[in-house]
Amino acid sequence: MECFYQWYKDHNAVVTDPNVILSKSDLADPSSGYGLYALPDITDEGKSTKDRENDEGILLRIPKNAAFDINTIDAIIHDADMYTTPAQSERTLGKVKEAFKHLMENPKTEEFLSEATILAFYFLLFHFIKEDYEIPALFRQYLDNVLVVTEINNPITRPHEYIPLYRQYPTLLGDELVILYFTSYLENELGIDIEKSEKTIRQIYAAITSRTLEIPHEISEESNDFTTSTTLVPILDFINHSSEMPWCAFDVDRKSADIILKYKNLEPFRNNNNKQELFIQYSDIIEYTSFNFTYGFVPVVPDTSVCYFNLSLQRSLLDKRTRLYYKWFNINPVIQFYKEGIHGKWKINLTHEKFIELLLPFMKDSHIDEQGSWLYNPNAYNTFAEYHSKLDPDENIEDLRTLYRSNIRADEHSAGDIMHFPQLAWTLRYSEGERNVLKKRVSKSEAIDYIKELPEDDLEDTFEAFKKFLTEYANYRDQVIVKFVESIISVEDKDQKAGRQSFLDLCQVERAVLGNIQDIQVKMILEETTKSLDNVPLPPPINVSLDEEEEDIAPEFSEGDSNTNGDEPYDEDNFTDFLDEEYSMLSLFFNR
């Protein structure tokens, strides 16, 4: 690694402070690898780095064209000076163009296309053709000395651990599909041996996704607006993360477009006679799951900082009523927790705009009988068929019933979170006056408006029902984690054991979250004035699958038939008092 560090500096006009060196990191995590350090003194001027004021505290300056984004890679590939002969340049360029053309012609490419996947494509291609084609030294040095050898312990390199427990996070499923796609593409394009090459593909892809930075670029000299590009920045990417000691920060020199590393805080370096490792923050906000999935470790946070955990509920542990409700209303079953510092307790982030949606299936209304607020219709396909037949009387009604029954059941049974139909399966029963109970099939926004108007006692009962559901889920989920962790630990494999800690650390954090659910006091939640929290995104709903898996539907929500009450004919009046109004919702669906 030291050889690459020196080679890269010498061949790319990289400027480093004389006191900045590369050395093995002192961090406890073995996968932290190398880091950049500042020496206490020894400069030409006899002053230590911490006391110098030259170049505004800049420690590292990397020319824009020595970093790798989709534009600089393309420029380097086309630069004939990067090859030993013009013939070699033309030969390699021809191969890259051909491979890229075939990539873009594949209709599946659009599903995975991003700046990061294009960077991965280039370096995977370079790796697998480097024995037969000349690759510019800048790429080959970085590929062989950094990307292929850097240890990454995240879901991409360790799917056998992460996928069984964390497949409810779409990022993991998406990365698995990218790996499958790259593997299939490279097999067809280059004839690689999948069995021998998959590990290398995972290694390079994981190294790239964990090392990229979003580098800002100004839109114009007169404006402070900027765009960002996903970029690999050699040497800068040796710097490790610390939320506790982020001494430095990277930026872009607006005059030269160079990427620079600067001191952010000089105090730790004053009166320090030992070399000091330099750190940046990979992210200002720590959300444990996304951070761990990207970088392959669980960061330590200062005791004064707020950190987050997006608890995406394991879909197979949801009771079927709740699962179907969340599907039909397109509710993402993710609960965001937060805590203040290492010793804080995990609490639900009540300020997140999506939290109230999770309460809807548990809504309690004291004016409603024991049937409850929600009525599920397992034969909602009849509603779609009836309306369709009104639009097109020539269609056979039984054929339409068969069609909608099949499509709706496919969505209900799928492993995804998305229903591709308007919400007409769930009826809200609500009171109007003291005795009059009305039925209406409502949208999510209408249901939210209703729950917001609940009396305080009913809202408390709703929270209690949600807490009961969440407590039962936490107990089951904790058992699942413990059982799975015990199963992988029991397998004696030194290679696997060495990189397993990142996964085990994440499991430990989740178990702490699950444990704090038991301590939730509903009355305290309702009275709590939550502090201002960061806007931390949730993982998206599941809309991809690694296979054609299906979920079982419990007997009370099974296939049903065209009759809902024995031999009585299907009657819309059993489910709504507002049929004409709801048909207008269907008109929007059919007129898309």
Number of strands: 17
How does the helix and strand content classify structurally? alpha+beta
Nearest-integer average pLDDT: 88
What separation lies between the terminal Cα atoms? 57 Å
The fraction of residues assigned to DSSP E strands is 5-15%
What is the approximate shape? globular
Number of helices: 20
Largest sheet report: 4 strands, antiparallel
Helix content: 40-55%
Main sheet strand line-up: 1-4-9-8
Low-pLDDT parts are: 42-47, 49-54, 553-567
Structure description:
By secondary structure, this protein is α+β, with helices and mostly antiparallel strands. Among the domains are: 2-65 and 233-280, Beta Complex (Beta-clip-like), CATH 2.170.270; 80-211, no CATH class. The protein has helices at residues 2-11, 70-78, 86-105, 109-112, 115-129, 137-147, 159-166, 170-190, 194-211, 288-295, 320-328, 355-359, 381-391, 397-413, 444-452, 456-489, 494-498, 501-517, 522-527, 579-590, and strands at 15-16, 20-24, 34-38, 58-62, 213-218, 226-231, 240-241, 248-252, 259-263, 276-277, 279-280, 306-312, 334-340, 347-348, 374-376, 426-432, 436-440. The strands form six sheets. The protein has a four-stranded antiparallel beta sheet with strand order 1-4-9-8, with no helix packed on it. Strand 5 and strand 6 form a beta hairpin. The longest helix has 34 residues, at 456-489. 30% of the residues are buried.
